[in-house]
Design brief:
The complex is a heterodimer of chains A (250) and B (429).
Chain A lengths: L15 E2 L2 E2 L4 H6 L1 E4 L11 H11 L5 H14 L15 H12 L6 E5 L7 H14 L4 E5 L3 H7 L3 E5 L2 E6 L1 H8 L3 E6 L1 H10 L1 E8 L2 E7 L9 E2 L4 H8 L9
Parallel strand pairs in A: 3-4, 4-5
Antiparallel strand pairs in A: 1-2, 6-7, 8-10, 8-11, 9-10
Helix pairs in contact in A: 2-3, 7-9
Chain B lengths: L13 H13 L2 H18 L7 H27 L1 H5 L2 H5 L5 H33 L10 H26 L2 H5 L1 H10 L13 H21 L2 H4 L8 H22 L9 H7 L13 E3 L5 E3 L7 E7 L6 H15 L4 E7 L6 H8 L6 E3 L14 H5 L7 E5 L5 E6 L6 H14 L3
Parallel strand pairs in B: 3-4, 4-5
Antiparallel strand pairs in B: 1-2, 3-6, 6-7
Classes of the chains: A alpha+beta (250), B alpha/beta (429).
């Protein structure tokens, strides 16, 4: 993320964004890029409008009227118009995230990079931010980094799974599900049986039903009585793709 | 949007960015606190009975230099690491603006904030003088002292901001405090050119500050620039300031009088005189409050009262007022008072002479150094062989020393009046 957003110099190799090399054409890349980092701060004493105006100046939006129009449009789109004149220091996490998203869109970027945009948000705000991203994806390429499967399911056309710096999977969501199709099982067990099952299979989920447990595992085959094959979901696929190669599980 | 393909060089955004930087600081509680404290401090300095505006103006300048310099170092150090503290750094660096431009905007915004503390200090002091009945015309004495303090603050601000910005550490920025402490504590053994406080050194230190700031702007987030060239105004600004700084230091050293670096032959000659009771008073040729060279021989034929004093003596205002009373009382009898200001700062004498509305000239012994021994302090002190300040010499109409007063007796107008009255009686006009 940092290399793509020109914040970090790659030690080897490079990346090309819309024909521009991130190593040598940083200014050009920044001009077509919007970036919402996972961990960011805002100037607490500035209002939402002032924050965006200041960021717009940094984006070289020189025309006052055009800048104002752009900011007003983004405030409306992010549902921040009512709080435009309130200092952002008093904003909730979700509102701050929407201001962050608005600042990333000031220069109408061709590529929008968002890093964990829904982390730490309450469910309502998470849905709101996710919907915004889905809406924005129609106009530009969005690179979304997340650990939340629901975010991926809601907005992603194409998924890449990174594990220790290496791509484990690149493709669409049906393809990701196909990776694990036929390998997901549901086992009914007592709490006492849980430990041996965990030691033997890759657990992807667990639910309790009275005294019984319903354990979801990913494996080529399962030799536990009462187990049955089920349709995979994205969490199953994610855990399957992220499994350690040298593990004897599964 | 600028999409020229190269780093934009126009300054269209700088003014607006500075405006936001100013707003970010101005709306903080700490800014308000420092403004109020500066105002109260200024009121405290200005609230002194019996003075015009000169003494308080000079004291306000000193307070600005000593206290607000330290405040500025702290403020600018905080500003240097602000983006890290607020976690806004990533949002800024990913924008297309050149890093040097938003670092410059941040610096200028911060400088305006610390200048606002200085303004509050001076406004507080000047207002108290007005309330005390000082004529508004005398408040002009505050201007050179404001300039003196402001130049020093520019220097320390540049240095502390640079260190904090480049190292991303407040402690690094605060190291500039050591320089300030060194120049205050080491006045007696350091060469005068190390001290940014005297007004004659101020412009040189501003140039040094700009050079330091240019280094910060060049090196800040250097890798972020990639293959893009550095802003074209930066190199000429740095080189021009460097040239000015070198020229300034050369001038200070070569045209100054400082036992550590270079002695001025005329001042050496002046200091080699030996004045005692009954002998000819030591002559001098020194600049007065208007910058005109004034010779001791200018008032030949008068009974002369030469008063050696230093503005670091807090009671010197009392002496100057007594001398003013004497000058007004005896001017018709051809008595001339000349005050000789012993200060390393060349603005002290003019500020106090004009601000106090004195009726006699005040010359500055520009060879003064800050050594504790008064005899070695300045050429004129050496010529009069005085080990105590203030020191008042009364001469007859032929220029021979007929009486001297030193130390606390100078603060009692009866002694001074008696000495002059006696001589007037002996040599009536």
């Amino acid at each position: 993320m940092s290399i793509l957003s020109t914040l970090l110099e790659p030690t080897t190799g490079t990346a090309i964004i819309d024909g521009h090399d991130v190593r040598h054409e940083k200014h050009e890349v920044r001009s077509i890029l919007g970036y919402l980092p996972q961990d960011f701060g805002l100037y607490p004493v500035l209002t939402a409008y002032e924050t965006l105006d200041y960021m717009a100046l940094l984006c070289n939006l020189s025309d006052n009227a055009a800048r104002k129009e752009r900011i007003e449009g983004l405030l409306k789109r992010m549902n921040l118009t009512d709080v435009r004149d309130r200092p952002v220091g008093g904003f909730s996490g979700g509102m701050r995230q929407r201001v962050g998203l608005a600042q990333a869109l000031l220069n109408s970027p061709k590529l929008l990079i968002v890093d964990e945009p829904t982390a730490g948000l309450d469910p309502e705000e998470r849905i709101r931010v996710r919907s915004l991203l889905a809406e924005l994806a129609g106009e530009r390429v969005i690179l979304l980094s997340t650990h939340l499967i629901e975010d991926v399911q809601a907005v992603a056309d194409k998924v890449g799974i990174l594990h220790k710096g290496r791509l484990r999977y690149v493709g669409d969501i049906p393809g990701m599900l196909n990776e694990v199709r036929g390998k997901v099982w549901e086992i009914e067990a007592t709490p006492e049986e849980l430990i041996p099952i965990r030691g033997k299979y890759l657990e992807t989920g667990l639910t309790r039903e009275g005294d019984r447990l319903r354990i979801r595992v990913a494996a080529e085959s399962v030799d536990v009585p009462g187990s049955r094959q089920v349709e995979p979901n994205l969490e199953d696929a994610y855990i399957w793709l992220m499994r350690e190669e040298r593990s004897n599980i599964g | 949007m600028d999409s020229s393909g190269s780093v934009p060089t126009s300054f269209f955004a700088l003014g607006s960015m500075v405006r936001y930087e100013w707003q970010i600081g101005r709306r903080s509680a700490s800014w308000r606190l420092f403004v109020v404290l500066s105002l109260l401090y200024g009121i405290g300095i200005g609230h002194v009975d019996g003075h015009g505006a000169g003494i308080t103006a000079y004291a306000t300048g000193d307070a600005g230099l000593q206290v607000l310099s330290l405040v500025s170092i702290f403020w600018m150090s905080m500003l240097g690491v602000r983006e890290t503290l607020l976690r806004t750094r990533t949002l800024l660096l990913v924008k297309p603006q050149p890093a040097e431009r938003f670092a410059l905007a941040r610096f200028v915004g911060g400088l305006l904030q610390v200048f606002s503390f200085l303004v509050a200090l001076f406004v507080g002091s000047a207002l108290m003088r007005l309330f005390s009945g000082t004529p508004i015309g005398l408040l002009g004495a505050y201007i050179p002292q404001f300039v003196r303090a402001a130049m020093s603050i520019v220097f320390v601000s540049c240095a502390s901001f640079t260190l904090a910005l480049l190292s991303d550490s407040i402690i690094a920025g605060m190291l500039v405090c050591l320089y300030v402490v060194m120049t205050v504590a080491g006045k007696s053994w350091l060469s005068k050119f190390y001290d940014p406080a005297p007004i004659q050194n101020g412009s040189t230190y501003v140039a040094v500050g700009i050079v330091i700031l240019c280094i910060a702007l060049s090196l800040f987030a250097r890798r972020r620039r990639g293959a893009a060239p550095i802003s074209p105004w930066l190199a000429p600004l740095a080189l021009g300031s460097l040239l000015l700084a070198f020229t300034g230091f050369y001038t200070i050293v070569s045209e100054g009088h400082d036992p550590h670096t270079h002695s001025s032959p005329p001042l050496e000659l002046m200091g080699s005189q030996d004045t005692n009771l009954g002998v000819q008073a030591a002559g001098f040729l020194l600049p007065d409050e208007n910058g005109q060279q004034l010779s001791s021989g200018t008032f030949d034929g008068n009974i002369k009262v030469f008063a050696l004093w230093t503005p670091s003596d807090t009671d010197s205002g009392l002496l100057l007022q007594h001398l003013d009373t004497l000058q007004r009382k005896y001017s018709s009898k051809k008595v001339q008072v000349v005050a000789v200001c012993l200060s390393t700062d060349h603005s002290a004498g003019p500020t106090i002479a004009k601000g106090e509305g004195l009726s006699y000239p005040v010359v500055t012994d520009w060879g003064t150094t800050a050594v504790p021994e008064k005899l070695a302090m300045s050429p004129i002190a050496s010529a009069y062989r005085t080990t105590t300040l203030p020191f008042v010499v009364v001469t007859n109409r032929r220029g021979r020393v007929v009486d001297t007063e030193r130390g606390s007796s100078c603060y009692d107008i009866r002694f001074l009046d008696a000495a002059v009255a006696h001589q007037v009686e002996l040599e009536p006009h």
